[in-house]
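Cross-check.
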Amino acid sequence: MGILLGETRMDRSVTYVSTRCFPAIDSPSVIAAIVGPARDRNARLGVTGVLVATEHHFAQSIEGSGTALADLIARLAAPTARPLSYGERSP
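Predicted model, tokenized:
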């Protein structure tokens, strides 16, 4: 099934953890540079979620249509990105 949010069907969710690839001292500026464009892109794609950053890792849980999440996960798992460890995938 899935939840209908506005005109977007939220039929899939993914939770993953990745390793931070920049010094913790740079966190505020680097995270701001990530979050700003991601908010715009995710709104266009109909993706919602939450991002948690620690000294060494990022954890994110995202939900949206299967197609939108497949595109986003492919982008996050690109060769230049750090490996992802999936905690949960549905369906």
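Residues 3-90 form a domain with the Alpha-Beta Plaits fold (CATH 3.30.70.100). Residues 1-6 have pLDDT under 50 and may be disordered. Passed to J.P. for a second look.
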